[in-house]
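FAQ: What does a multi-protein file look like?

Like this. Sequence, then tokens, then the next protein.
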Amino acid sequence: MPVRLGLRVLVSAPRRNELPAEARSVHRPAHMKIVAVANQKGGVGKTTTAVNLGCALAERGQRILIVDFDPQGNATSSLGMQELEGESLYESLLGGASIVERIFPTRLERLFLVPADLDLAGAEVEIARMNDHLTRLKQTLSILRSDQTFDFILLDCPPSLGILMTNALAAADEILTPIQCEYFALEGLVKIVRVVEQVRDSGANEQVEIGGIVMTMFDGRTKLSAQVVAEVRAHFGERVYATVIPRTVRLSEAPSFGKSVLEYDPKGTAARAYRALAEEFLKRHDSLASVRG
């Protein structure tokens, strides 16, 4: 596959069932985690969190794969890789290609991407007709779970409760839910909780749970933001991350330049917040590993 737009992509496509050599060149972790960044409500900072948390984790030495699972492809364009048309998981979900043929290195070290495009919307229709329609993504990701190339896979989910979303929840070890610091913040979270229960009851993934909640778009100038954070913490306790993501102009501007806010405004308040979130995220997972180990 040719290099496009100067991006540091592989010169030739990896062979079926073989991961990119650049990803395989580092030590493999004992346990890979698949985290679905999900909220059925749009405009809550879901893609922003998936991209910037992924970049912050990669900065800290973690091997990260972001899977853009939203037909709108916002995570793909946020990383400046929107020219990768026809490289989404469409064929992989339908059994026509291995996911390893859809993994591309980004310009950032240790950060990889499976891009998305509008073909995924068509896949949703076709998957719905299959007997195993809830577990297509789980099966697609199984080679990565057995290979243990990446430390974390972040699934950027569409803002809906359709087949793609339920596939992501069925494939994930846990869910990370961004919630904006605005009125009706709990509304979307309640619906996610119900969908999680449905996925468990279906048998598609009996272990999935909401592992963390991230408060986004915090505006320190208003009482409402603080009230919403307090209310969510009162309901969900320690599941809510201590780190709060602020609403900033730089954070909103960064995707239009095809950059994470860590690149676009590395010393800004939003970049510092996502680095703090990454540190808290890793501490939580170290604690979980110790408990389970």
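And here is the next protein:
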Amino acid sequence: MKTKFLKNLVIAFAIIYAPLQSIAWGTQGHRICGQIANTYLTPKARKAIEAILGNESIAMASNWADFIKSDPSYSYLSSWHYIDFDKAYSYPEMVDFLNHDTNVDAYTKLNFLISELKKPNLSKENKLLYLRMLIHIIEDVHQPMHTAHADDKGGNDFKVTWFNNPTNLHSVWDTQLIDFQQLSYTEYATAINHSTLAQRAEWQKAPISQWLFESNQIAEKLYTEIKPGDNLNYKYNFTHIETVNQQLLKGGVRLAGILNQIFG
């Protein structure tokens, strides 16, 4: 009993003090995407998801994959959160790259998770694990720095300052820009959850390769705009917050689309 308590205590402290750059979109960003996705579920999909998650909302389930990083037994999930590219690809080049992709990364695991969750005989334990991971990874790949360069760990080694505070490019896009708006995740979701039926249909029919291409195009542009050591502040927020909001919205809408395909 004492050993279990100490283990749980260690995990709790690891969650609290985990470096921000290790968390994609940050806690707020993931919950915003999940909250948006919840508004576009079909009744059948909602019922099926509630049967798996119980009292855990999609918004709250969005963060499980980052919180569980504190448990070494789940370390095998680390590479599921991102996919690296070594250059700016054209869309045909991107598709060709992905068609030959055999790495354990966000693309291959998204395809795996979607396929597994469609199986009627999947165990209850795997349903819960796979659904939580699916939610999280779909949101992850809409954060541009999760489709960025391997040599700087998706911008984690690209050191900058945010209002004179040391950070990195990855963390700016994970948390700093979103937190700077000073909204709760429900307020934020309400503020940006505005799209037409035609827009949602277009975003949801796009294949995963298109999602990755869009994110990578943004990431490649971000690399050209600044250099290591730059101080990012009001102007950077003004220039990029619309892109942040668009990616959060697309992530939520597309998450709903995949969940409806699987469960609806």
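Q: Is there any per-entry metadata?
A: Some entries carry free-text notes. For the entry above: DSSP finds 13 helices and three strands in the chain.
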